[in-house]
Amino acid sequence: MATTATTRIEQETACIPTLFLAFELGVKKWKLGCTRGAAPRPRERLVPASACQTVLEAIRRAQPRFGLPEAARVGSGYAACRAGFWLHRFFVRHGVAHAVVDATSLAVHRR
What we know:
By secondary structure, the chain is of the alpha/beta class. Helices cover 20% and strands 32% of the residues.
């Protein structure tokens, strides 16, 4: 008669500290939301439109506020519209993991 035995595999998962960013891109102002994850309330800041150095400074200030090291990974994204891809290239050049979403690919209930 065969018996089954439980085999446990030790696995380590690395928790990489990450600062998440979200943008609302307006003509005159951008709303920037920063958070460490889904649970903490996002820190929201208004910055002048196209003021990329101000956005980088907001990122630098948000990292210690959320208890993240200076070398923490930064992830971001926005819906591509009139802003185009220059912003994406800027963030990638400065080490931000950035994703651009085509707004027409988002499922929207039309009623």
